[in-house]
Design brief:
351 residues; 14 helices; alpha/beta; globular; 7 strands; 7-stranded mixed β-sheet
């Protein structure tokens, strides 16, 4: 995987402000890869260079037409302009519960198991603040989505890494987690289909992970934005529909990938009632949910026929095929991923 090095804007701001205004939490955060790349793109654009932007996994497809209609209609409706607290988000919570039940044939309660998020990334951050204390241990995959590391630093958590290695299909070896690490762990992060490795997990592995968390009283957090970006006959399993999964775990969903709504910043958490209630308490102190028009847009998205989602996934599947075919044609050996918008491969020898 190729990246851009250097401290970047966040690094410089951190160095300038660390002594006077930066908290220990802010100072402990790693430099944001996205901020570094954003600065590099901005600098290149200022010099008039053309940019091929591979810096962030953002869909370039359009949201479903019904989504855009919902937003346009909401803008013309003055009743949508006010704050939207928890009770006002019930329509979206119901839509998410119905979507989940239809997808996984497993019912969830929109009032106790579902919570609206301002994107899964926000949900992950606030969920850690809601369910862990500084000094707690988290089992975190390595490599992982870069934002995880900053959020873990904000929460003040100790990390026990779960190595994702090629020979295991980028699935962690839970049997290698020491008894002491398992005893100390408060939460474990899963993310399948995976960012960045594009790996997928079988139901067998996820059952093993749920059982591991039950046995060790660990909260499994399954970051699940690529649930629909799957190819061939693969279907992404949900940990909540597995035995004991809903009783112990939380999954984070987003409209960003399935419905090409990254800029709308809307998602939802489904999971254990106590964890969802704790998350709701934290969120209640820091946000009042999205504009109602965005919530209505998400409802419209969640009622889309599955074949529309499969059609959109086929666009990315064709791009995957083109990229991987040409990489292999020039001698860059690259496996064919079953999901996500990423290709994870070794650099050719000599580079």
């Amino acid at each position: 995987m190729l990246g851009i090095g250097g401290a970047g804007l966040c690094g410089r701001l951190g160095e300038m402000g660390r002594d006077r205004w930066a908290s220990r939490r802010a100072a402990a955060m790693p430099v944001s890869m996205f901020a570094t790349m954003d600065e590099a793109k901005s600098e290149a654009a200022s010099r008039g260079l053309d940019i091929i932007d591979l810096s962030i996994g953002s869909s370039d497809l359009s949201p479903p037409p019904e989504v855009l209609v919902a937003v346009r209609e909401a803008i013309a409706d003055p009743s949508t302009y006010g704050y939207r607290l928890h009770a006002c988000a019930r329509e979206l919570r119901e839509a998410a519960a119905n979507w989940y039940a239809g997808r996984y044939r497993y019912p969830v309660d929109p009032d106790t198991n579902v919570l609206v998020l301002i994107g899964a990334q926000e949900g992950f951050a606030n969920l850690l603040l809601a369910t862990t204390d500084p000094g707690d241990t988290i089992l975190l995959p390595d490599p992982a989505y870069p934002s995880y590391f900053g959020v873990v630093a904000i929460a003040g958590l100790d990390v026990t890494p779960l190595a994702l290695e090629e020979q295991r299909g980028f699935l962690p070896d839970l049997s290698a987690v020491s008894t002491e690490a398992a005893r100390k762990a408060r939460a474990m992060v899963l993310n399948y289909p995976n960012n960045p490795t594009a790996a997928v997990a079988s139901e067998v592995f996820l059952r093993e992970a749920v059982d591991f968390c039950i046995d060790n009283d660990i909260l499994p957090i399954h970051d699940f934005p690529y649930v629909d970006m799957v190819y061939g006959g693969y279907e992404a399993p949900s940990i909540l529909a597995l035995p004991g999964g809903l009783e112990i775990g939380v999954e984070l969903f987003s409209c960003s990938k399935s419905f090409h709504m990254g800029g709308f910043r809307v998602g939802w958490a489904i999971g254990n009632a106590d964890a969802v209630a704790a998350l709701a308490r934290v969120k209640g102190a820091v946000d009042f949910n999205q504009y109602l028009g965005i919530q209505r847009a998400a409802v419209a998205a969640l009622t889309q026929p599955r074949e529309h989602l499969r059609r959109d996934a086929a666009v990315y599947e064709s791009r995957r095929d083109a990229l991987v075919t040409h990489l292999n044609r020039v001698g860059w050996e690259t496996p064919l991923p079953q999901a996500s918008m990423y290709v994870w491969t070794r650099l050719p020898k000599g580079l």
